[in-house]
Amino acid sequence: MLFSWLFISCFPQITIPTPSYRSSECLVRMQYRLNGKGNMAIVGFFPAYTAYPLNKTTDWRMAKFTRDFMVEFKLRNYQCILAMMFAIEEINNNPYLLPNTSLGFEVYNVPHDQRHTLANVFVSFSGTGYGISNYRCASESTPVAVLTGPSWALSEHIGTLLGLYKFPQLTFGPFDSALSERRRFSSLYQVAPKDTSLTVGIGSLMVHFHWNWVGLFIMDDDKGAQILSDLRSELEKIGVCIAFVEMTLVSRGSFLTTSWKNQVQILKSSANVIIIYGDTDSLLSLIVNLKQKLLMWKVWVLNSHWDYSSFDNYLLLDALHGALIFSHHNEKIINFTNFIQTANPSKYPEDTYLHVLWHSFFNCSFLRRDCKIADNCLPNASLEFLPGNIFDMATSEESYNVYSAVYDVAKSLHEMTLQQVQLQTPGKGKDTVFFPWQTPQSVCSESCLPGFRKTHREGEAACCFDCTPCPENEISNETDADQCVKCPETHYANTEKSHCQHKTVTFLAYDDPLGKTLGFISLGFTSLTVAVLWVFLKHRDTPIVKANNRTLSYTLLTTLTLCFLCPLLFIGRPSTVTCILQQNTFGLLFTVALSTVLAKTLTVLIAFRVTTPGRMRRWLLTSRAPNFIVPICTLLQVVLSGVWLATSPPFIDKDAHSEHGHIIIICNKGSAVAFYCILGYLGSLALGSYLMAFLSRNLPDTFNEAKFLAFSMLVFCSVWVSFLPVYHSTKGKIMVAMEVLSILASSTSLLGIIFAPKCYIILLRPERNSLHHIRDKT
Length: 778
Known about the structure:
Elements: H1 25-29, E1 33-36, E2 40-46, E3 49-53, E4 69-73, H2 75-92, E5 103-109, H3 114-126, E6 142-148, H4 152-165, E7 169-171, E8 188-190, H5 198-208, E9 213-220, H6 222-237, E10 241-249, H7 263-268, E11 273-277, H8 284-293, E12 299-303, E13 324-326, H9 336-342, H10 352-361, E14 366-367, E15 372-373, H11 397-423, E16 452-456, E17 465-469, E18 474-475, E19 485-486, E20 491-493, E21 500-502, E22 504-506, H12 513-538, H13 543-546, H14 550-565, H15 576-609, H16 615-622, H17 629-647, E23 651-655, E24 662-668, H18 672-695, H19 706-729, H20 732-764, H21 771-777
Parallel strand pairs: 2-5, 2-6, 6-7, 7-8, 9-10, 9-11, 11-12, 12-13, 22-24
Antiparallel strand pairs: 1-5, 3-4, 14-15, 16-17, 18-19, 20-21, 23-24
Helix pairs in contact: 2-11, 3-4, 5-6, 12-14, 12-20, 14-15, 14-20, 15-17, 15-18, 17-18, 18-19, 19-20
Domain G-protein coupled receptors family 3 profile: 514-778
Family: Belongs to the G-protein coupled receptor 3 family.
Subcellular location: Cell membrane
């Protein structure tokens, strides 16, 4: 007789002598499907087996089966199919649950790729041999719910489609918070409880055995990241250190991991306790490598979602012998073990899976055309007698979840039937008709969605309420929330008010359009002022430059150059240095500029009032006493700034309220009193300069600039008087921009009004800038 190899998992670990024809081909060639008759049906998608290409060049997505495949049995998942069949048999035999109604089932194997999985969903809905969307052909049974699992990826793929039809879906795999998003999976219900106590249980185990040096292997997905965070927190709390963390990448939508390349990590590590979190599909290659290395003297701490039949090698020494496994406590399913023991091809002749198992392990004759065994087989053969631990007779966690899910569907159907019987008009005798998304309602008020809170109606029952939108910057992220929660200052509520999102940090930056514009204006006027200063220096010996104290003119132009550069301190990310320099530099420079204008007006006034020179006026004129006004006024400003910095200096602050969704970094002035004292001091200098210039505006002289000085001070005061109300009515970046604009506007008024007429004469009318012209005019 010829023999071939039968692969029980995706690595060669056991060999089974079989006839030349591999009966496992039937599962793939006939696309394993199992039906139970009933006028209502529960559809189940289970990865009962997986076919892999032996040759890398083989296209495993081909619809046609070839012999270049190996088949991996997933017997833990097949136990879930038996649990579904057992629960439905119990329900159909119960006269008090779903009377006059028979519950059937449809079971589909989950193929490798997402495309064929979704195609099977359409096949189930259509009732034909091929899928037709939005069309139902078969009439003998109506699908009422879909069971999916144990993989979260499978439930997610199918749930995306079922959500479009609002078709009820129950998942029996481990709880996954991603599947709880009601906006994405509005019709999905997770049967498994949330793993809230897993990390606490592992931590207690570490404390009990005094283990404080452990390694972690976790699947690299959202659930794995959450478990890693919880484990780190719990282990750090009890003083357990983590030797290494290996995140095993799981291809989303695939049931195989990428190759595990970091085998050296566990071999070299001194940690003898290894915590592994994942399931059979996600960490399969990891266990393969561990078993091949035969790593002894290691303690393995596992969660419960493992198909041990994929790893048990009953011809070799078990490398994971003595592993500690955490699982949820489940109630025992009465008579389920007896049901498994009696499940055989004779009892369920349409189940090809049982025929293949009997042929593979009990050496039964096999009819290739029908994919069934002959009658000459062991009469007492049972799943219990499969070699080794390849089939666990104990009820798995997933099987219990399947059993519970079937009963949940049946109870819902029972309630809906009773409801429609009560509403049905007597005597019409119509059959009960309902849509599958109707999981029956009897409520006073519809549930409040996330983003709303319940407001109880006065004088009515507690179940009667109105849904009120959450206030500004408050959220509710669950259905029927009693109160909204205020977002932290660093977060803001999204439009739906269901989540708090991080605020974006912002400031008046150079790459911001407003900051860029102000920066260009600042540099442009700086260049213009330098050009005017160069013109005055070049023509320093001409009458118009020498008139009205050219030293003060040079001082004023130099100060204005720095004033135009001052706004650059306000643009860019604030720092402690720039916050201190902003207001103090601004105050100091404008004090020098205004005191220079004051000195120039006094020079004009003294010069033209000396018609009968006295000793005092002559001394004031010849000693250039007005020049001392600049250092005296500047010294007073330095004193004010010193007091400000010593008492309450400016500092970096955050404005989280001015702009929605933004945290604005600004410079807090520290002491508002000191800031307004400086503005008041500058205002008094500007007013004094204006009064002096106003008094000498009509004095006759060829180059009398008193009129221009008076007008420039008038514009200067107007700018800053207008600045105050606008400054207080704005916030954030706009407030900073308003101060920068005021600095630029007031500096431009001084430059333009005082020096533009002089530059006009120097550059365009040079004949008027001569002693000959002055004598002729006189």
